[in-house]
Amino acid sequence: MLREHAGMLTTWYLSIDALLGNILTCTVEYTRYSTAASRYIKTAAEKYHRTRQNFEHVTTIWSLALLAGCADADYPPPIRDVNYPMQTLTVE
Q1: What is the dihedral of CA 49, 1, 72, 88, to 10 degrees?
Q2: Among the four 24, 25, 59, 69, which has the fewest Cβ within 10 Å?
Q3: What's the pLDDT at 42?
């Protein structure tokens, strides 16, 4: 399942990269992408980046749980926010 998801992320990355390359290399006025297409690609790239980070996070936690021999790992600790005046981390 992890390999399949990683393969999907690779396909997604290559597709965004190809679109971005098209935007950067189009020189003829009638073949250039619109501003909306550029915004779409930027949004897709940001969504890809968040999805990839989530995948890496979950994969790390799952791997550490396997090493610990239990269902849940202690890493990373759940942190919701930073309380600057009290200099503490707020947990979930």
Answers
A1: 0
A2: 69
A3: 85
